[in-house]
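Summary for the steering committee. One of the milestones for this cycle was to obtain a three-dimensional model of the protein with protoporphyrin IX containing FE bound, which we needed before selecting residues for the alanine scan. The sequence and ligand used are listed below.
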Amino acid sequence: MTHAILSPAMPKPAHVPDALVYDFDLHADPGLLADPHARLLDIARNAPPVFWSPRNGGGWVIASHAANYAASRDTETFSSEFVPQAQMKAMLASLPAGAPHIPQPIPITLDPPEHTKYRQPLQKVFSPKTISNLRSSIAELAGELIDAVKPNGGCEFMSTVAEPLPVQVFLKMLGLPLERAGEYRAILKEHMSAMDNDREGAMRRLQRIAAAMRDTVLARKENPQDDILSMLWQLEIDGQPTTLADMENYGVLLFIAGLDTVMNGMGLAMRGLAGDPAMQAKLRAEPRLIPEASEEMLRRYTFTVPMRIVHKEVELAGARMLPGDWAKLLLPAADLDSSEFPVPEDYDLNRENNVHIAFGVGPHRCLGSHLARVELQVLYEEMLARLPEFRLDPAHPPVFHGGHVIGIERMNLIWDI
Ligand code: HEM
């Protein structure tokens, strides 16, 4: 288990009643680090549907399914613009002439209507058709990674499969050279371990990501190929042709939104399967059940926690929030809410109306959900087809991490050879 230091408890603001205070540190909660979804189930059962935690700077945590649904759709009250656009534009305009562009992960940091202008062109790029064309090459990459560890009778799954697979898929999809996978993995590692509040460091990392893509981005403008960078150059944003700055913004968005998420989803999915030999046997015998299994995995082990800042006074599930308050959308607790999912702790392939919100809901709903689903399903298929029954290595229990993408640091799997 990782030991992290709890963040200091902030004083409770006057508008927060005692009954709504509940201690939960998204990064260092001991229960979360010991077994994330056991703690999240405990929150879903025992915490108020919306509570205020003194940790992580002090802020609201939205736990119930209904409250997450309502807050995610009300972007006028629950804003994604942590730095207001006017302030951001003024800051960018104040940079000296010729200073390197600071890429922004747009549109995830914008509210409608500005958000819509930048999201709409991306929909085409992530259509189910574009993504299903990638399926066989994703399966090939997954197969190579699994075959490489198979003769060893075990592996540290995160570094050998869960991390390299989405990085290689990302490079391939964007048309970036696979030889640079090591460089991208290094940036991803740094990005994941960086502190939340290190804004300058975040800007430098975003610039490094953009710099690592720039040669290929420019080459695709001159010589379009069958890849996403070339497609992005063909887009129009609000009637204007795409610029290099737009390309860099989209590039860092996809890097941030698509790598860390898939990797941790893969870890959580395989941890679930490794502890459930009966489910492995069932899915090996009936691979057609894999799409349902991966959907139920997304619900049972939902793992992302988007942030919002309150822009207007509002009451949500009995909690009065004021402008400037921070709110975490605790989607993993929402998907374990028993008023929405009967017996939520069960991993149930026959669940009716599995309307989980692992990919969010409302205008920011994940644009990469088709791709993520294909990556997860392919991983199930290839792991089950290529390996005999696998299990957790009792000598090295998994190490978990909290944060906005809850997940796994290290996980040793073993199998018989
Ligand atoms: C299992 C893996 C994934 C999960 C659980 C996930 C989850 C989410 C969630 C919850 C949001 C909403 C964020 C918010 O409301 O602020 C989101 C947004 C987004 N995701 Fe994913 N994601 C995954 C994989 C991906 C992949 C593979 C990509 C693309 C390469 C991607 C691209 C995006 C983009 C572009 C947005 C922003 C959409 C917008 O702001 O309009 N995601 N994702």
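Key point for the committee: The pocket of protoporphyrin IX containing FE is lined by residues 80, 107-108, 119, 253-254, 257-258, 261-262, 265, 304, 306, 331, 358-360, 364, 366-368, 371-372 (CB under 6 Å).
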